[in-house]
Input
Amino acid sequence: MEKLELQSACFENIKTLCVNYRKDSASRKTLEYLKKRLSSLENQWQDFESRHMQLVLELEDKDTAYFKDDIFGKTKEMFLATKTDITNKLATLGNYCQWISFKDLFLEAIHKNPMINNVQKMQHLKTKLRGEAERLVQHLTISTENYNSCWDILNQRYDNRRLQFTSFINNMLNLPIIQNADAYNLKKMHDVITECLNGISNIGIDTSNWDPIIVHIMSQKLDSITFSDYMKELQDHRELQNLRDFLYFLETRFMAYETIKSAKKANTTVPEKSPNGKTFNKQTQMKKHNYNFVQNKTNNYHALHGKCPFCNGGHVLRQCDKFLRMDFGKRNDTVSKLQLCKNCLFSHGNNECRSTKTCKECNLKHTTHCCTMRTNKT
Output
């Protein structure tokens, strides 16, 4: 029974991953997001499949709901549909930066698959090529004989660490200087830095000591107001700057901009006619019942301008000494009273938290500062 319970929990995990993936917006599905989601999904599936084989061999009573409802078959169908969709979004090749992720995914899903013949493999391959990569093999017709030649040509061209490195570095350094900060520009900077450094690490180059260089170069591309706010957030102006903190700063800023933009859309005044012919404002009527409206607007202001919503100091909440001196229970209460998200520690109303960070203690979707597991340990 214990294995059935574990299998049930694993099924729920896979289901949640698949459902959340479908619900997430296209803008959130960055390369890094897709890689993490695919990795989590495959890890859960491996556990599920392995435990299923054990249940088939060990469980004599096949009259349980697990077997009668074909939970394994339904889970496999759900897993494969989501994996295929993620793979299709990831697996395109048009430049050196895309080669490693493309090659790994294509090898796993297509090249090494004994159920697919060479004609089908080449058909899959050609549909995933873009730009230069597509032109490189356009002279090869789809056939059994041409598949290996096509794959070899692409390997010969793109399996080049020097040019891969150059492409990643150029993508990062060629980001334009931001004139007026908005969600799009700050999110783009955040994602390009993350993807390029991960790409460089994936070709075997150690980037662990690059933080001060990368932060210095990229912070110079910020507009003057955002740069000034970032300087105010530094805990120690004598120490070298940390890339993780810089990326967190960018993340909180673009999330705040997105929240404010959503709030403005939600509060757009559109006069409508009532049945008696009088005009009235629908949003004004709704706002009367939105008790968190003023508080959320205030919290968005704090997030955007680097103000602490707890003590109103010139720092964000996670750097507030008064907040950090509290025990974990009081921190949780404070976050709840301030109507902040327990994952990113600022308010985004009823919108889903877009932060990709998880708790360092238990890996769940909340900040380490408010982890109940940590409370139990202490």
